[in-house]
Amino acid sequence: MIVNIAFEGCCHGELDEIYQSLQQLSVPISLLIIGGDFQQRGHLTLFVRAVRNWRDLNCMAIPAKYYRLGDFHDYYSGKKKAPITTIFIGGNHEASNYLWELYYGGWVAPNIYYIGAGNILNFDGVRIGGLSGIWKEGDYYKGHFERVPYTEGTKRSIYHVRQYDVLKLYQVSERVDIMVSHDWPAGVEQYGQLNELLAKKKYFKSDIDNNALGSPPAMSLLRRLRPRHWLSAHLHVKYAAIVKHQPRNQRNSAVTHHASQMTEYFPQIPKAGNADEITIDLDDLPTTADAAVANNYTNEDEIAIETYNGQDANKIPAPNSQKVVVDSVDDDIKVDEGNLASAAPIPDYQVDTPISFDEDTISGRATSACLKSVVGDAAAGQTENTTDARGFSATRFLALDKCLPRRNFLQIIQVRTQEQNGAHKLCYDPEWLAIAKAMESYMSLDVQQPELFATTTERETLAREIRDAREWVQSNIVELGKLEVPNNFHPTAPCSHRDDSSRNTAKLQPTQYNNEQTQVFCDLLGMPNRIRREPGQ
Question: Residue ranges of the Lariat debranching enzyme C-terminal domain (predicted)?
């Protein structure tokens, strides 16, 4: 079966237009994935969609002069319902107090599902992963300590990616079809048409030269998981790339496991003429032919559309003439190796200090932590050389623009699955449930996050815990038919309207609400609900 999935970059508050555009297509869309930022910037006003009431606005990292309630409350209250099942990850313009209620994932409105801080879900046989937030080095190793009322600092730190959530995703050993992050994996721009990107976004060059563009942990996950697709938003430009992966038995086998033994792995783009720089092997470096494949790989079934943005309710504007194919329905990417061999390679990456690196590194800062996946190694007695089947030989990266007329912000992905008749149901993933159950006790709710899995003994313990949890999930959830995500949305906070008089008394932040969906999820896995806030806390 072929599943048609729409991907939208930064939503920026245009839910109505996106849904109306998708409904006018001749191709049936089963699922919409949004890459974060449920808000829209007007000329003078910020229209926020992912807020329920005026007080939620005070939990966002935006200037108060831009506050204006959008129409998310229509979806939240049930006045409107998303016509297509929608899942989204968190970006850096969200009502973080609401999303924290649903740390493990949950419905923010009928038929609109927040994927959580990190997650793997199944939809009609398509395995979809997500990592919410953006990269910020100073907060990466902290715990999830932020609570309302937020300070100006914690309004921002709460949406910064945490190492703990990355390490959970790092334990995934089964194939992932689609992975979504808000910011780009660091260095992915090197695998596409970089010159064309810089022609559109000249100010990216400084960040690229200084290794400041994108998320190092996201790139580490891309190398580890090897998904069929990696989708991102955040930078407001359409960009495609293909990252090829070497067979695991051909890569550098050196692994350094302890943070104190690591230096920052993510390399600088080489500077010509520096004889003191040290070359390292980063598996298969991109070539100019790789970039050409990423830009020109065509499929006549590919769909690129824009919303009509209210200009004509009966007509969608013509698609952008520059097509970038995200997916054919083949099981893997077909690359003409003859063309690749004749192309001049991009020069090797360089770094200023020697390091021990392989794709099992979780990056973050000068003293980086790393973790080898213990599910297939210590738990099952397998080695890296025997696990090639879990990933794809190449990952197709796509970033899209924000939702504006004549911008490339929406595209259709076609994925073949083994399902015969899709029920269009969102389901939990058994492997992810086991990981979530096994790793719950390691999450810190304080500023300090204890160092995670630095020793062989700790990694072996985690492997055993995940294995035991997988058996528990099989017996208590899978075999009992409990994998379908329950349709259990209920409003937790009052709903405001644009002309609501509560705006005049909304200068304070709201209290932290307890979401019953989170309690139901924790009960399903038989684990404590540490997201719940008790009276007096």
Answer: 382-531
Answer whether 103's CB lies under 8 Å from 140's CB: no
**pTM for this structure?**
0.77
Extract the tokens encoding 463. 């492997």
3-class SS of residue 191: helix
Question: How many angstroms separate the CA atoms of 366 and 167, rounded?
Answer: 18
Neighbour tally for 115: CB within 10 Å: 26
Q: Are 100 and 157 in contact (CB under 8 A)?
A: no
**Other C-beta atoms within 10 Å of 191: how many?**
26
- Tell which residue, 186, 71, 72, has the closest CA to residue 137: 186
Angle, to 10 degrees, between the axis of helix 216-225 and the axis of helix 163-170?
10
| CA–CA separation, 375 and 384 (whole Å) | 11
Residues 6 or more apart from 319 whose CB is under 8 A from it? Answer: 303, 304, 305, 306
Please give the Cα distance from 500 to 505 (Å, whole number). Answer: 10
pLDDT at 33: 94
Gap between the Cα atoms of 324 and 241, Å rounded: 9
The per-residue pLDDT for 77 is 86
C-alpha distances in angstroms, 373 versus 7, 162, 402, 436?
29, 18, 35, 15
> What per-residue confidence (pLDDT) applies to 340?
28
CA–CA dist 279, 216 (Å, integer):
19
Instruction: Please list the alpha-helical segments (H only) found in 316-398.
Output: 337-342
CA separation for the pair 131, 303 (Å, rounded): 26
Question: How far apart, in whole angstroms, are the C-alpha atoms of residue 50 and residue 42?
Answer: 16
List, in sequence order, every residue forming a beta bridge with 128; answer none if it has no partner: 121, 178
231 bridge partner residues: 180, 398
- Residue ranges in the chain whose pLDDT is less than 70: 10-14, 36-54, 65-71, 249-389, 402-409, 496-507, 536-537
The per-type count for the chain, helices as H runs and strands as E runs, is: 14, 19
**Whole-number Å distance between alpha carbons of 39 and 10:** 8
- Say if residues 456 and 12 touch (Cβ distance below 8 Å): no
CA distance 429 to 118: 12
- Taking a C-beta distance cutoff of 8 angstroms, is the pair 150, 29 a contact? no
Structure tokens at 385: 């050389």
